[in-house]
Amino acid sequence: MHTDTPSTSPLTFGVLGCANIARQFIRDVRPSREVAVVAVASRDADKARRFADENGVAASHGSYEALLADPAVTAIYLPLPNSLHAEWAIKAAEAGKHILCEKPMALDRAEAERMFDAARQHRVMLLEAYPYWFQPQTGALVDLVQGGAIGTVRSVMASFGFMLNTAQANIRLQADMGGGALLDAGSYPLSLIRLVMGGAPKRVSAWSTLSDGDGDGGVDLATMATLDYGDGRRAQLSCAMDGGMHRHATVVGTEGTVYTEYLNHTSDQPAGNAFGHLPSRMSVRRGVAPRPFEVVTSPTGSGFRFAAEAFARLVAEGDVAAMERAAAASIDIAATLDAIGRSARTGQWVEL
Question: Containing domain of residue 55, as a range?
Fold first, then answer.
């Protein structure tokens, strides 16, 4: 891994693709002194140039390969469709670029392992970009759980869902591009479950509502899963693209409970934020007797910026140990997502 002395120079990012999420990432990291987006690429040179002009990015490239060859680019932000993450993360590693990869990292455990093997081989950093992971609120959640505020964790219930207009063309509805509620939305609650539980479950059982009724070429519009850890701990996951916006989790311990909305982007304003960001509620009930929840407050801001700046520090410090901890989580998440999908298709418990 690169172990250069941390520098005051910003980490220079190139962005692969011109998706809306790339536009939001560029917008939110623009005020940062720790990172700078210096180039963007598309397979269409004119599209890349327009996108760069619209978003204040200095350079554009008409191919992903050209961006990877750009010496001004030190790191890659990878927001391509889920099915392309492994291919382009590995190519970026081979080009000597650090990679901040959008969730989900991979479609299965084998893909995730190949990606991290490539990062190690080429001495670059690879990190999965769940924006809420880097929110100060999530740090407060970890402190509460690991600090014993609610005793020993016994269960987690986590969900995320929204309404998708299935009458319109949308990549989330394309099975061959890694679409579906489980990968798009379910990866969020699963990542929170992994964060709290510290490992993968022993087995999973799941059920899905499918876009085409029988699963032949369609995607899951909603999935619910039970995760069994084999030691009395358990978790429940729910994700959907066919219901109202909801995002929350409850962590239950032997001595209390934590509730959180774990939003990607947060604001201290109840309404009127320029980008639609809202406050993310979190509260803790200490003890087993009925008592009021205590509100937990944390600094707010864009999860994209928090993630990019955390990644910049990881790179600057050459923090291999931190990357390996994140790698273990990402591999567990990829393996569990794959197992949940197989269980939903077969109707059987699937062991990891």
Answer: 11-130+307-318
Q: Please determine, for residue 5, whether its predicted confidence score (pLDDT) is greater than 50.
A: no
β-strand pairing of 282-286 with 234-240: unpaired
First to last CA, the chain: 30
- The predicted-structure confidence for 181-198, as pLDDT tens digits, reads as follows 999 999 999 999 999 999
Contact 260, 286 (CB under 8 A): no
> CA 301, 195, 85 angle in degrees (round to 5)?
75
Sheet holding 59-61, edge to edge: 59-61, 35-41, 11-16, 75-78, 98-102, 126-129
Kindly state whether residues 162 and 221 are assigned to the same domain: yes
* Whether the bond into 71 is cis, omega within 30 of 0: no
Cα–Cα distances in angstroms (integers) from residue 30 to residues 35, 127, 192, 308, in the given order: 8, 20, 28, 11
Residues 306 and 134: beta-carbon distance below 8 Å: yes
Q: Check residue 266 and report its DSSP letter.
A: B
Backbone phi and psi for residue 153, each to the nearest 5 degrees, phi listed first:
-65, 130
d(Cα 323, Cα 126) in Å, to the nearest integer?
A: 7
Does residue 141 sit in the same domain as residue 99?
Answer: no
The catalytic position among 47, 97, 103, 202 is 103
Known active-site residue 47: no
pLDDT, residue 211, reads 87
Give me the number of domains the chain comprises.
2
